[in-house]
Amino acid sequence: MKILHTVEFYHPSIGGMQEVVKQISEHLVKFGHEVTIATTRLPERTYKELNGVKIVDFNVSGNLARGLSGDIDSYRRFILNSEFDIITNFAAQQWATDAIIQITDSIKAKKVFVPTGFSGLYDTAYKHYFESMKVWMKKYDVNIFLSNDYRDINFARNSGVKNCVIIPNGASQDEFLAEVNIDIRSKLGISKEEFLIINVSSHTGIKGHQEAIDIFNQTKIKNAVFLMIANSFEQGCNKSCKQKELRFKKSIKRLFDRKKLIITSLTREETIAAYKEAELFLFTSNIECSPIVLFECMASKTPFLTTDVGNAKEIIDWCQAGLLLPTLKNSRGYSKAKIKESARVLKQIYIQNEQRELMKTLGFGVWTRRFTWDKVSREYEKLYFSLLEV
What contacts 299, CB < 8 A, 6 or more positions away? Predict the structure, then answer.
């Protein structure tokens, strides 16, 4: 098959959506298919192909609600003049989908849409956008959802969209089954006796970093380290996180509880090493669709605590490898951990070593059977083949 995946950002850009599309695309290439990515042009990307996946980039930005800008006509001509068998748009509310969503009737290829959450569904600025979405989704040959119960699939069902399937996210067997050659504790000055809690999420300002730090600070445990692995993000929470880190270290409470807070960025290899070394993952994001980090917890045998965000509750039901933190949700659907109550949950799992061991075993087993990227990508391949048979 000749397949086009469109996504706002792609490697070397880092993020959950980038990782999903990269993994699926590279696996489909391994399965013998020709895959091309249409994405935003980045000055640091100096190549047109990566791991067998072709990359075509455009100087376009924005979305239909805020306005599109750049060379939109070139992108549309590329789509309309292409000879792909399958065109899949990953994520709404961004130009790579929005610039062509109104012209789907003119696209010859089979059309697939992966909404990935509809984060702006409750935002008044997107009111007309989502009114139109009720029609647009019906023009795709199929809509892929990551969850059986989240705002995007419920929106589709309530709008009478019938062409829906569910394919979950996953985690990489190549990464998590490989031997680790990095002593991350030694590198970061964390002793074997210290209880290691990690968080992996960028400084976007909506990953709940402030809440995570507050929960760790208030949890009545000793000799523990909270390692926050976070890439910088323009206009994000970089500065405020560093300020909290400084205040945490200077607190007189550290003389008694011997807790440490480390906020840093790591390479992917170092991050995998941290996953495998951690006793617990603390995830307090404010908005998600289907968090990849929770699948990576399963793959690394790391039990997790998470806010009720995206389909985290459903993932816990699937794997039994995590616990839900007490969570508040506002009118826009954003989640926020209850600090005091979450601190008590953290303390309980900290002292329940046997429960953590069971969660590790259960999560890893379920990931192996259902949620490797190889298995997820095979589901995409099977779906793509079925569309071409119609």
Answer: 171, 172, 173, 175, 176, 177, 275, 364, 367, 371, 372
